[in-house]
Amino acid sequence: VNGTKDMIATGECWIYVSDVASLPEISLRISKSFKKNKMNYTLPILCKVRNVSRTVVTDAGGKLLWDLSVLSRSTELLTSELADSIIAGQDVEKLKRRIDHVQASVSSTQVFKTRYDKATRENIMEMISDIQEKLDSLHAMLSQYLRREAKNVSLLARAEDLKFSAQFSKSRRQRLMDRRVARNFNTVKSHALKSAVASEESLRSLTDDALNFYFCVLYMSSVKDILMDPSDLENAIGIGLAVARPEHVVDDPTSLRVYSISGSLVSRSSVMDALKYKISMTNPLSAHGGFSFVSMYQSELSYATFGASREPINAWLPLYVCPAHWERVKS
């Protein structure tokens, strides 16, 4: 009516406060800038906040998920701004610093804390993976745009990619590993189809003390929770190890060297998630050490995660625990 139109919009904002009771009232002020007949105009838009819903986040997992949602939104804004700058042929140095800052925030995110349960950790890793995928696209756009000034950057990137693939220097060992992986995959696949969730009857022998002892410090799950989880029939509980191995471990498995045995019990899925996360954030060598021996007294040992006492973990060894758990391990 009379050239006016009502519009309804929804939005989110985040506020850090020390006292929940001090949450302020929300008000909005919006203006639209436009250009007409070579003149710049600013039009104020009247706004009225009709409904406000508040969610107070107090637990550590919820706070981290909210921080990651902010990083995700920042990444989307950077994508738009970078695309505009590239199209206009503008300098992208400031955007590059902002992208590096977001990347540093994502890389420094501590996923494996004892305060996060399995569901929260899975949500965190999913969000980090999504943000990292966006950041990878931004880095690719930046490199393509800046390559006109530094054409040898692609050679350096290719050298980094080839660094790990060159660890298997012997083609015979590569073929041996391929055959072993194929054979193990078929075995695991056939057993996985026969696997089932453990029943209460099969776990009746586990006492409360046993459930408290056989407890994954990364996923915050007991062995009973692991065995009765229908979403992951390959998960089991074991001990974390810090190991190193030479390349000929493919021919001689006894050459594997165990440097330390963790006092923390961890599940298979938690260690695999830690390896996957560390590799995606850094490189494979920093997660499992590659095929090389390190000095017994070397302070820096490649690791995927830490145990409860900050001991390094880059490998995993399953435990017997009970017959139902051992059946899961053997399969």
Automatic annotation (TrEMBL):
Domain of life of the source: Eukaryota
Descriptive protein name: Uncharacterized protein
